[in-house]
């Protein structure tokens, strides 16, 4: 378990900036940089011999992901990013099915659904998100529900107990979740979550850098969502199973051990730091920030009315305020109608105070 002061020294960006932008990109850190350099040095001196053990290595990456999120390694697919993985999942589903989405969800989620010809229905994202979803299901009887666990613009966090209950009430509803703005922020047991398929890119809260992601499938779901034609054609060929198995539809071509090794290294780094400590730090920071921004009347009503929230906030502000904050080395993002700030475990209350002081001076 690493002490927090030592951890912050791992991230050079934090020494020069008030970095409140993990929802846009997680940070590279010193020990991961060392790992990546060592990886490429081994490739440099080994060439093809370096790749001879790649299959076993990628299996170990799946196992690390499974250990971190409580999912059997055999049910884990590696993908370069969430969007590619989701599109592959949806390509394998019957597009005569009815799909429920959330009205202002991440474009990589909603466009992936709408451009494939599914019969689409929507639920509104507001303070009554879960009630809206339940009403939409009762009215439209969808076959599939696709959503982000955390909304990328304002940080609204869906109630995961609600999802578990939803699966209990509608066991035939295929539940597909985007965990990119969620995974790494709190301890998560996928196997008992009620979610059938969860995808995630590794470059945000998991600190894995770009070019890596994964999809978790609950038992039998990978086979159930693979087209019958694919399964039949695979049985009728003499190709090596690595080209025709159920995962090959997602993992076609060579996977990059540099990218997936980075993800594995960061999962181990987060585990050594302590998932419980990370969860607690993020929760305390989020509660502190929520309280302060509420007093300044900077949060939207839908966020204020919810009992629980993530560590992503969208505050009232325009391009001028965004530019002002950047001049003060406070790193945020313009999203929706405001400025998005996002907090990871390496942030501190002092950094939130720096933001608040800047907002006060701007006003």
From TrEMBL:
InterPro entries noted in UniProt: Aminotrans_V_dom, PyrdxlP-dep_Trfase, PyrdxlP-dep_Trfase_major, PyrdxlP-dep_Trfase_small
Pfam families to which the protein is assigned, alphabetical: Aminotran_5
Residue intervals of the Aminotransferase class V domain: 52-355
Coiled-coil portions: none
Keyword NAD applies: no
Top-rank taxon: Bacteria
Keywords: Aminotransferase, Pyridoxal phosphate, Transferase
GO MF: transaminase activity
Name of the protein described by the UniProt record: Aminotransferase class V-fold PLP-dependent enzyme
Species whose genome carries this gene: Aquimarina addita
Lineage of the organism: Bacteria, Pseudomonadati, Bacteroidota, Flavobacteriia, Flavobacteriales
């Amino acid at each position: 378990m690493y002490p927090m002061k030592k951890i912050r020294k791992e991230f050079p960006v934090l020494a020069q900036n008030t970095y409140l932008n993990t929802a846009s990109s997680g940070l590279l850190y010193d020990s991961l940089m060392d790992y990546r350099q060592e990886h490429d040095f081994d490739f440099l001196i080994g060439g093809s011999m370096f790749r001879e053990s790649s299959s076993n290595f990628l299996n170990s990456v799946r196992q690390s992901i499974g250990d971190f999120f409580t999912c059997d390694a055999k049910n884990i697919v590696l993908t370069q990013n969430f969007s590619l993985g989701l599109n592959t999942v949806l390509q394998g589903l019957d597009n005569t099915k009815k799909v429920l989405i959330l009205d202002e969800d991440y474009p990589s989620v909603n466009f992936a659904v709408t451009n494939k010809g599914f019969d689409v229905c929507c639920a509104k994202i507001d303070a009554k998100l879960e009630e809206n979803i339940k009403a939409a299901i009762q009215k439209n009887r969808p076959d599939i529900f696709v959503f982000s666990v955390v909304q990328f613009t304002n940080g609204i966090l869906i109630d995961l107990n609600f999802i578990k209950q939803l699966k209990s009430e509608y066991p035939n509803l295929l539940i597909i979740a985007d965990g990119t703005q969620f995974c790494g922020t709190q301890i998560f047991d996928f196997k008992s979550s009620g979610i059938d398929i969860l995808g995630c890119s590794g470059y945000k809260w998991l600190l894995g850098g770009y070019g890596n992601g994964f999809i978790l499938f609950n038992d039998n779901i990978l086979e159930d969502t693979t087209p019958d034609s694919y399964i039949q054609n695979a049985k009728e060929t003499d190709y090596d199973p690595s080209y025709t198995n159920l995962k090959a539809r997602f993992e076609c071509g060579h996977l990059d051990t540099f990218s997936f090794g980075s993800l594995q290294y960061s999962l181990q780094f987060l585990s050594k730091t302590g998932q419980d400590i990370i969860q607690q730090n993020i929760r305390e920071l989020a509660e502190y920030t929520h309280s302060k921004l509420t007093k300044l009347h900077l949060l939207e009503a839908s966020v204020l009315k919810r009992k629980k929230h993530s560590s992503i906030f969208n505050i009232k502000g325009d391009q001028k305020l965004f530019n002002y904050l950047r001049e003060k080395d406070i790193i945020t993002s313009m999203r929706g109608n405001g400025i998005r700030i996002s907090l990871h475990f390496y942030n501190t209350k002092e950094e939130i105070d720096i933001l608040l002081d800047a907002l006060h001076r701007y006003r």
